[in-house]
Amino acid sequence: MATTITAVDLSVSITETYSLNNIQYGNTSTKSFGDNSKVEQRIMEIPTKGGGEGTTWTGILDLDTADAAGHIIKADFKYFRVTNLDDTENFNLRLYNGVDYLILSILPSASFVLMDASVDATTTDIGVTFADITKIQGQSDSASAGVEIEFVAVTV
Amino acid sequence: MATTVTPTILSVSITESYILNGVEYGGTKTKTYTSSGKVLQRIMVAKTDNPAIIDFGANDKLGQVIAADFQYFRVTNLDDTNFITLMLFNGADSFFYKLKAGDTLLLMDNEMDAIASSASFGAFADITRIKADADTAECAVEFFAVTT
User: Fold this and answer.
1) The whole model's pTM is what?
2) Are A113 and B144 a contacting pair at CB < 8 A?
3) Rounded to whole angstroms, how far apart are CA atoms A91 and B86?
4) Of A135, A95, A129, which is closest to residue A112 (Cα–Cα)?
5) Which among A30, B94, B99, B127 is most buried, taking Cβ atoms within 10 Å?
6) Residue B116 sits at the chain A interface (C-beta within 8 Å)
């Protein structure tokens, strides 16, 4: 028994188009990720943040040691992108690496991209200890309205 | 006296090309920013002494743009081998990200909170400084910052 999946490359391009005072700025940054054979892509609803600040967090994706429902293999991580599909409400994205949390505000129609899973967070700027992200979670920044998001995660 | 610069539109597109088992995944996501009237684009060398590459503060000045006017920031590691430890600092908390060779990090908002060893959501604060610490040997980086 053998897989029938042929691993392929993922190409990601970020293109900025911006002309100011008759001068073109920005660039196109392209990165190719070789030999990937797994993917999870999903549009899902993220509920409100609950009563207090950060009360309710919804799991989006776990990075673990084996593929399972909502889990991908951390060691095989290549690429992750999440986009806030709401046209009004902000989306709060939380990354957890087993020790530290990072929370970012994602504006309507905005995206956030990870090309590596190694992060660290401290209250100082010394002694960096990278650890792979293990949980990606989110909440609507609104206490009354949820948001929809799209994410895509690619692994080898 | 009045400025002769007319703010314009910045468009940022992320395009993924990925066909697996005959099915196309990924897509193109575009965000448009209006009234973008100032820009800082630079290619510089990040050494191993953790240099700041850009500050966000109250006014435009040497190496600094106005935090309140933030619209978009992108940094790309132009090295073909070594990684950079990128630090985002919001005045209280630091977030570190491994920016490998050829990798890009983009920010479409400048609010962040980072908590070491705690699940509690403190409060968002604007990023005030971004540093790029080359891990092994100096790396060229390109960054692009647009403000209103």
Assistant:
1) 0.94
2) no
3) 23
4) A95
5) B99
6) yes
DSSP classification of residue B125: E
Stretch A27-55: mean pLDDT: 89
- List domains and CATH numbers for chain A: 35-155 (2.60.120)
ipTM: 0.93
Largest interatomic CA distance in chain B: 62
Superfamily of B36-147 according to CATH: Jelly Rolls (2.60.120.10)
Q: A3-32, pLDDT tens digit by residue?
A: 999 999 999 999 999 999 999 999 999 999
The whole-chain average pLDDT of chain A stands at 93
pLDDT at A70 over 80: yes
Residues of B in contact with A89 (CB under 8 A): none
A113 touches chain B (CB under 8 A): yes
Residue B3 touches chain A, beta carbons under 8 Å? no
- Cα angle A115, B122, A82; round to 5: 25
